[in-house]
Write a structure and sequence with these properties.
The protein has 134 residues and is of the alpha+beta class. The protein has one domain: Beta Polymerase, domain 2. It is 40% helix and 19% strand. It has 6 helices and 7 strands. The protein has helices at 7-14, 28-32, 48-57, 87-92, 105-115, 121-133, and strands at 22-25, 42-46, 61-62, 69-72, 75-78, 95-97, 100-102. The chain has a 5-stranded mixed β-sheet. A two-stranded antiparallel sheet has the order 6-7. Helix 5 runs antiparallel to helix 6. The two termini are 20 Å apart. 34% of the residues are buried.
Length: 134
């Protein structure tokens, strides 16, 4: 799939967020690497100007985990990922795909191993396969 054509990616691009203040996390990086062709939402970790732009579009609320704040626009943006994940480090370690910063697959793997949800196991298998062929 053409990453530029994905509706969630188009929606994210339309927000015109500064690329040095956010990173796409969750299953989004699997889409960027061609490991998945569909995702239910796009998770974004944001700070600074990107967070300000997001909160201008929607009112921030508490996250389900109680860790940080969240904005929901079909794109779920948070100020903090899970405990143990540093926002600044995630953003500075991002990889650009189609001009959009995505978290490295190794960080996505670490996140999915932290949550250990049944829905994450197929993604972990895809990530492990991709990381071993690199």
């Amino acid at each position: 799939m053409n990453l530029h054509a994905h509706p969630l990616v188009r929606m994210l691009r339309a927000l015109e967020l500064p690329t040095d203040d956010y990173v796409v996390f969750g299953s989004g990086p699997l889409l960027a690497h061609g490991l998945r062709t569909t995702i239910g939402d796009l998770d974004v970790v944001a700070r600074g100007r990107a967070w300000q732009a997001l909160t201008a579009a929607a009112r921030p609320v508490s996250t389900p985990s109680g860790h940080g704040r969240m904005v929901r626009l079909q794109i779920e943006a948070v100020t903090d990922w899970l405990p143990g994940f540093d926002t600044d480090r995630l953003i500075t370690s991002a990889e650009l795909h189609a001009g959009i910063p995505f978290a490295p697959l190794a960080e996505v793997r670490r996140s999915k191993l932290t949550t250990r949800r049944p829905k994450d196991w197929p993604d972990l298998a895809l990530i492990d396969s991709a990381l071993t062929t690199v």
